[in-house]
Structures are given as C-alpha cells and as structure tokens.
Amino acid sequence: MISIVISTYKPDNFRKFSENVKLNIGVIYEIISIENPGLMGLCEAYNKGAEKAQYPYICFCHDDILINTPNWGQEVIDVFEENENAGLLGVAGGSYKPQTPSSWFFPGDEKYAKMNVTQVYPQNNEIAKCYKNPNNKILDSVVVLDGCWFCTRTAITKEFKFDQETFRSYHCYDIDYSLQVAQKYQNLVTLGIELEHYSYGDFTIEWLEESFKLYNKWKKVLPYYIGEISTSEISRNEFNTFCFILARVEKHRKCIFQLLKLLYSYNFMKLVKWNKWILLNKYTWGGMYRILRNKEV
C-alpha cells in the first residue's frame, strides 16, 4: 500500500498522472494532492502531504511524469521489504555529491550517475532516452536522488522532515532530503522502473541561489560519496563542477561573493589541489572581469 504525494496546480497534468497511476501501480494506493499555484515551496507541500499519508510507503513526485512499468508499486514495496536499510528509492541519482554547488549530476559524472528516464520535450515533441547504468545493476546505491520521483517508508518522513525553512522554492529540496536520509540509511536507484518526464530543469538564478544555500548547510559533510575515491578523482570532480558553476555565476551575475568565498576556503583548496586551484583562480578572476566589463557596456 502506497501513499503518493504530489504538488500540483495544473488540472490536466493531475488527470493524466492519476489515470496513469491507476493503470500501472498494481497495489492499493492513495493520491494526496497539494494544490499549490505558487503558494509554497515543495518542502512545505511535501511535509503537509506526508502528514496525511495513511500507508506504510510513500512516493513524492512531480505532476508532469508518467510511469508505464506495470505493477511498479509492487516493485517499490519489494525493494523496501528486501532491503531493511533502504532509505530513499528513485529512478535517477548519483553516488558522488560534490562540495561545489551542483545538481545531483555534474560534468564528468559518467561513473556516478544512474538513471532510467525518458525525457519528453513538449514544445517540439522530441524524446531523449536517458539510461545510465555504469555498474550494470538494476538496483544500485546512490547518495543523492532527483526529485521528479522518489519513494521512502512513511516512518522515515516522521524521522526526517523536508527543510521548509531553508528551501522555500522548487530547487535543492531533493538533494537536501537525500543527504539527510543518507546519514542513516542507504539511498537507492532502481533501473527496473522507467519514468517519462514532460519538463526539464534549468539552471536559473533561483537554482543558483538555492544551490549556495545547500552548500552552506552541508559544506562540512561534502563531498559525499560511496566507496573509496582517490584524492585526484575528487580534485577532478570538484574542478569540473566549479567550472560549471562559474559559468552560471557569470551568466546570471549573481552569487559572486559566495563563489569567491568558496574558492578561497581552505577546505576547497585542499580538495582541488594546488595546481587546479591556480587554474580556477585564473578562470574566476577572468569571469569577474567579464562581468564588470559587461556592466559598463
């Protein structure tokens, strides 16, 4: 038996989602719809929904997804019953979360990213099949999950709440919640359930600002990863991610001070190593110069 919590304000999306769940979930379920036309962030919406859940397992998901895998609800239940330390279960996630602000994925993450999502772009009906299975496992461990769809035990939502005080929008709630749960439980991705997603995220100004909030909250824990990773690999991961976030800062002309504070933090210098830090220092001040020059034009 599964409770499904969804934050929505588009009746057509909710209708399609509800019909799809009825057709394919294969177990007793309830849908808890939180009407949310911009009234609250996802953390608050999900906390409200979790309080209403009456079944032992709970899914949190966007309203623009479809799951066409038959009896996917039973697969979810089986994972939790067969893995007593399972915390969260999703269809997309990563086994390395950089200290540098990022999504659950980052440039050069091929060995860490695991996902089974068909991305549909409604504006032009293009379809992109995103399947990543570096370890050739149907069920694999991760530290952070994509929030388009993930499930957990309802009891865990009593133990860990979504941080609605820090994250009041629609960004970073999933990574934050993943990291909370990962401190005690094992997060998992299943590639046995395929999800269709009818929108795509963008690295907006709001995403950038929320990502630095996440960094400030978790910087003493990050980078967070599974298994043993060499210091050179950590250095490369953080270097690649910093270059990505620098481009976002330069594009939006926001979070400049936060980026510099990160660059000159002792812990970050240790992570990226001296030679790469020198390059990042050069790239960063080049970016600052371009920002200032563009402001003068």
Structure description:
- By secondary structure, the protein is an alpha/beta fold.
- It has two domains: 2-227, Spore Coat Polysaccharide Biosynthesis Protein SpsA, Chain A, CATH 3.90.550.10; 230-297.
- It is 42% helix and 23% strand.
- The protein is built from ten helices and 15 strands.
- It has helices spanning 11-24, 42-52, 72-82, 154-159, 173-182, 205-218, 231-252, 256-263, 266-272, 274-296; strands at residues 2-8, 29-35, 57-61, 65-67, 86-90, 92-94, 96-97, 113-121, 126-132, 139-142, 144-145, 149-153, 186-190, 195-197, 224-225.
- The strands form three sheets. A seven-stranded mixed sheet has the order 2-1-3-12-5-13-10, with helices on both faces. Strands 4, 6, 8, 9, 11 and 14 form a six-stranded mixed sheet that branches. It has a two-stranded antiparallel ribbon with strand order 7-15.
- Strand 1 (2-8), helix 1 (11-24) and strand 2 (29-35) form a beta-alpha-beta unit.
- Helix 7 packs parallel to helix 10 (274-296).
- The model has no long low-confidence stretch (mean pLDDT 95).
Give a quick rundown of the structure.
This protein has helices at residues 11-24, 42-52, 72-82, 154-159, 173-182, 205-218, 231-252, 256-263, 266-272, 274-296, and strands at 2-8, 29-35, 57-61, 65-67, 86-90, 92-94, 96-97, 113-121, 126-132, 139-142, 144-145, 149-153, 186-190, 195-197, 224-225. The protein is an alpha/beta fold and 297 residues long. The longest helix has 23 residues, at 274-296.
CATH architecture of the largest domain: Alpha-Beta Complex
Q: Tell the overall outline.
A: globular
Main beta-sheet strand count, sense and barrel state: 7 strands, mixed
Mean pLDDT: 95
Strand content is: 15-25%
Reading side by side through the largest sheet, how are the strands ordered? 2-1-3-12-5-13-10
Count of helices?
10
* Tally of distinct domains: 2
- Mind telling me the C-alpha Rg? 20 Å
Low-confidence stretches: none
Structural class: alpha/beta
Distance between the termini: 60 Å
What is the CATH superfamily classification of the largest domain?
A: Spore Coat Polysaccharide Biosynthesis Protein SpsA, Chain A
Order of helices and strands: EHEHEEHEEEEEEEEHHEEHEHHHH
Pfam families: Glyco_tranf_2_5 (PF13712)
Keywords: Transferase
Domain Streptomycin biosynthesis protein StrF: 17-190
InterPro entries: Nucleotide-diphossugar_trans, StrF_dom
